[in-house]
Amino acid sequence: MTAPVTAGSARGTAPGVSGFSPETPGVPREDLLRALETVRDPELDEPITSLGFVAACTVSSDGDAEVRLRLPTYFCAPNFAYLMVADAYDAVSALPGVRRAEVVLEDHFASDVINGGVAAQAGFAQSFDGEAVGELHQLRADFLRKAVMAGTDQVCRPLLAAGQEPAALLAMTLGEVPPSRALERLRQRRADLGLPAGDDAALVIDPVTGGPVRPDALPLHLRKAKITRVSIEANAGICRGMLGHRYNHTQGQGETVLIEDSGLPADS
Prior knowledge:
By secondary structure, the protein is α/β, with parallel strands linked by helices. It folds into 2 domains: 19-127, Fe-S cluster assembly (FSCA) (GMP Synthetase, Chain A, domain 3, 2-Layer Sandwich), CATH 3.30.300.130; 137-246, no CATH class. Helix content is 41%, strand content 9%. The protein is built from 8 helices and 6 strands. The chain has helices at residues 29-37, 78-93, 111-120, 123-127, 137-161, 166-169, 181-192, 218-246, and strands spanning 19-20, 40-41, 46-47, 54-59, 64-69, 100-105. The strands form 2 sheets. It has a 4-stranded mixed sheet. A two-stranded antiparallel ribbon has the order 2-3. Strand 4 and strand 5 (64-69) form a beta hairpin. Helix 5 runs antiparallel to helix 7 and helix 5 crosses helix 8. The longest helix is centred in the last third of the chain and has 29 residues, at 218-246.
């Protein structure tokens, strides 16, 4: 976070009620939603918009932006929640025309601590003093590595289904893979980790070191990639179901449905 943020108690929008202000000359609603689309649930690796986590987003004619977030349960992990609130603030406050940004997490057992910590730019460890052992950089990196593994499966499965031999995947580069949304997503996640993501980068790599995968380790690597992808998608489905039940299936701002057979939300 790079500038002051005001976080207050949850007022003005009832739980589960989505809302937004009319477009203003300074900051169109579409720009606000596009900024929030860049914020992902760290565990599910999906935008908070497509997951339905954005209950409301408004912006005044003076450039005062307010975002209200909701989560599937009252007890969602506070470290994940903190990352999403802080990232949402960073994304919104960076928009040209936004003078002040306020991001409020509602209906969560740690809402006051999280909202106060983001407001004070205190960081996770100071916000949860006596409970947290450090900041969340390593947690973010660990989930990005899982996203790289899941993305590897999403890209490699169609290749294998088309008759490509598993061993041939080791010789392929990203530039040799047919363009797809899954491929672009994999590139982005690898770039976020500082891993090779250019056309000449190997398709299959170790997500920790960025180095090549040995031929004898490839079968296990592909199995782990599949298991990781299935686990993330299953957790995302569970969270969508719990959120829908909690908020009576009230649609969030920017919420989308999954594209059939892709495993990807329409805006990821």
